[in-house]
Amino acid sequence: MDRKQYCVKLSVQPSRGLMDEKFIVLVQNALPGSQLTIRALHQCEDGHSWEAFGHYTADTTGTINVSEDPSIGGTYSGVEQMGLLWSFRPIPGSKSGLRMRKKNIQTPMEVTISVYQGHQTEGFADLVPLSGVAVERWYMAPGVRRIPVTEGGLTAALFLPSGPGPFPGLLDLWGGGGQLVEYRAALLASHGFASMAIDYLTAKITMETGKMVDNQYFETAYRVLQQHPQVCGSKIAMIGLSFGTSITLKMAVYSEVIKLSAAVCISGSHVQPVDGSVEEILRFFQKNGEKTRFSEKNEVIWRDLLLPIPTDPSLKVNVGRLQCPLLLVVGEDDQNWPSQESALDIKEMMARAGNSHLLTVLSYPNAGHLIEPPYTPHARSSTLKTVEIEEKVMCLWGGQTVEHSRAQEDAWKKMVVFLKENLYGGRNPTSFSHL
Amino acid sequence: MISIIFFNLYMPEECLYQKFSVLFVCVCIYMFVCFLTGEVRRKSSFRQSPLLSAAPVRALIDEQISIKGRFLSQNYPVTVCAQMHSEEGDLWEAFAHYTTNASRSINLTSDHSVGGSYLGCEPMGLFWALEPALRSREGLRLRKRNVETPYIVNISLLEGHTSPSEGQSTELAAVTVERWYMAPGVRRIEIRQNKIVGTLFLPPGPGPFPAMLDLWGMGGGLSEYRSALFASRGFASLSVAYMGHKDLPGPPDIMSVANLYFKSAFQLLQDHCQVDADRIGVIGLSFGVCLTLRIATRIGVKPSCLICINGPVGSPLLDEDGKTKTIESDQKHWELDDRGRVSFRHVSLPDNLPAENKQKVKNITCPLMYIVGEDDLCAASTENADVIEEALRSAGKSQLFTRLSYPGAGHLIEPPYAPCARVSLWRAKPEKCELKFSSHCILLRIQYIMVNKFAVGCFWVFLFVCFSSLQYSLCGEVTPHPTLLLKKIPGRGS
User: Is B411 an active-site residue?
Assistant: First the structure.
């Protein structure tokens, strides 16, 4: 091997980070001016391999700092400190419609980052890297405890931060795909919130009895959280994505039991039959099923099912009655839900009712539906099995990768600030225009 | 409540007035009690903790952790306390006193401690100032044996300016951090071949890597943590035991292995397919310095660079073949204090070393860095550094010598942000002892170290420069001056 090739030093700091933590990728001791490729490789839990890479030129000192130097090609370009993670894509030859989601959040995501000679675009498996390091990315900080919750018929998992508490609480809801999705709750617990991830569509009780849960299910979850000795019962928020937004708004406005200190609604809508049960709301969506469109690639577009935004008040959550701060996160290229139109209507309703000081809207051009914790890859479409449809469909979520990834990073940061200031800060409820 | 209602309902008519009065009073009492319990529940649910955070929460031992407390009151005194258990089960702790400012927060990276285990702005003070908790056993030294698991440190925020031993204060918040000697992907390989007793650590990646032979002092045994950390920074590293290990021949208190042993260890690195045979350095602390110099001059191998920390240029205990006599065999230069603690400093004074025992430093052909703790009471480090420097100067090799010298630093200059003991138990001697102190143990007095991150920064930079300079001179291509390389290296400390 050519002597000058094996002196390149690669480091990533921190080598064990939380999922939303930035790292510094540094190449040193390369030949000044040499062309190098930095590549990240990850094998996810279902066995698929993902890669991301950038093309760099070492400077006069033989150094490349990914936080400062531009990539001039690869899966991302420009100065992108975290590009090696958010631009992950399945390796060539993988099946289509994949989406990276971690199920077991008690182990880290393991990523191998390597440096290769030259500007490579393919065939990495056959190349010997100049250097390589292993990096761990964690959803759970040390000391965070995971507690399965089954009381009251719940299918949930509670994540408690380390320390004596009491901690503010969070109810964490995902969307129409169902399942118990834990990673966001685990990450929020790592930021100091006692977070309960809830399965409300494929809960054990539903699978066993065939009956969908209703309001009492969420109120039970709220009570369980509120009564936990390490939870500050008067500081509980709810966060929902997609159909989880529908539930969050419904509970925030209409529940006699659930009194939220803050609500975060991502990529969702307030359109639903008011007074409808969970099942009735789902049927309402299905009724409009003929409005389903298809992209050129035959991907399902469901955003029109709730359009146009109705004027009939019995078909929209009366957000004018909301009494807690609300953060709406909208991807303007959302092809799954009409989140932008809904956000505009919510804004109008709250302005008319005089409580718009509670509202903050974060709206991102070219971001899609799945606005998730940052530095995980963007899926413009993926296969989905919802509770309503038995077979899998290829669902179009929308979004362009770069803008979507920026949206995820920005939205997450602001969401955590919003939650901290409302749940820890103890301020009077107000909008966060400074966000 | 219900029984009272029934009782009242069934009282005779004539007592109607009394009946309703009693009922009214009971209802009032009941409502008051409900209000009170509700009030207590509301109070406890309103009481809310501030937030303590650390970043990163999983760090290598030589990485800085940034600790912040938020959502406190203004001008509020707090204590930040770190606690961890050693592998032996002893509790170690450190604490510092801070007061919040107008932003109702504290940030250990920029704020000043006004009391506790350290004073002033010390971002990593909670780690390097760890001490055994009160009433612990004496003479403890924190050294990690199992480097494949982290130290788990619990950091808590307490109300007021207090100390953990007082045990009275309210814990407001806490965060847990992990501190690792091994980065992900580093491989640990036990070596028991060619009579070598050691542990090899390999960085992740294909290699080949530059390598280090890692030597400790006469305490014996096999310390792996520095090697693990080297591997986490890209150097293959082999720690070898040379005395006091069950897998080594001979009694534990003498070195029964000779020059050939160290040559085999060096060659093991040279022969390893993932090690660059032309870029192997040696690092030695304390007696390991003597061995390092011997390896560089007497046994027929050519290291690329040497790091000597607080050790002698020679030793009367080391004979021609490189084997030792026991340290107790020659005690004429031992110094005892009034508590029966021993200082070995005078043993290694160059003037007390016979000329034939001094290593032939003038024969060294590679860069040598000598790190001096100026308050070292175990070895005469400054004097030995002077001897080495002079020997190289006389041989026209001054350019090979670099000295880092630290006032107030002691003998055990180890990887940073870890506590060092003031005094530690070095050898237990249960049988009769002619000295005046307790017959239970001989204590080696080691001055408390003020960890200096500049030293660490220079340390890594030095190694990096060594290996890089070699690489470029071997290539014969663009040969940047080593200082150019120093400019863009991000501060790992300096």
Answer: yes
Q: What is the pLDDT of residues A309-348, one digit of tens each?
A: 999 999 999 999 999 999 999 999 999 999 999 999 999 9
pTM score, whole prediction:
0.86
Give the DSSP letter of residue A145: E
- Mention every residue, 6+ apart, whose C-beta is less than 8 A from residue B362: B391, B392, B394, B395, B397
Q: Which tokens belong to A140?
A: 């759970």
Summarize pLDDT for A164-196 with one digit per residue, the tens.
999 999 999 999 999 999 999 999 999 999 999
Domains and their CATH numbers in chain A: 10-138 (2.60.40.2240), 145-424 (3.40.50.1820)
Contact A6 B276 (CB under 8 A): yes
Q: Please pick, among B86, B97, B376, B381, the residue that the annotation labels catalytic.
A: B376
Q: How many other CB atoms are there within 10 angstroms of residue A186's CB atom?
A: 25
Interface mutation target, options B40, B53, B57, chain A, most CBs of A under 10 Å: B57
Give the residues across from A110 on adjacent strands. Answer: A136
In chain B, which residues have their Cβ closer than 8 Å to the Cβ of A138?
A: 58
Q: Do B485 and A135 touch (CB under 8 A)?
A: no
In this prediction, the answer to ipTM > 0.90 reads yes
Question: CA nearest A236 in B: which residue?
Answer: B45
What is the pLDDT at residue A431?
A: 47
Interface membership of A2 toward B (CB under 8 Å): no
Buried b (16+ CB within 10 A) or exposed e, A295-315: eeeebbbbbebbeebeeeeeb
The question of whether A369 is a catalytic residue gets the answer yes
pLDDT digits 0-9 by tens, B29-88: 766 665 555 444 444 444 567 999 999 999 999 999 999 999 999 999 999 999 999 999
Record: contact A9-B56, CB cut-off 8 A: no
Distances in Å between the Cα of B463 and the Cα atoms of A39, A403, B185, B234, B283 are 27, 42, 21, 11, 10
Residue A342: beta bridge partners?
none
Indicate the average pLDDT of chain A.
94
**C-alpha distances out from residue A395 to A66, A229, A294, A364, Å:** 34, 42, 9, 20
The active-site residue out of B169, B411, B424, B469 is: B411
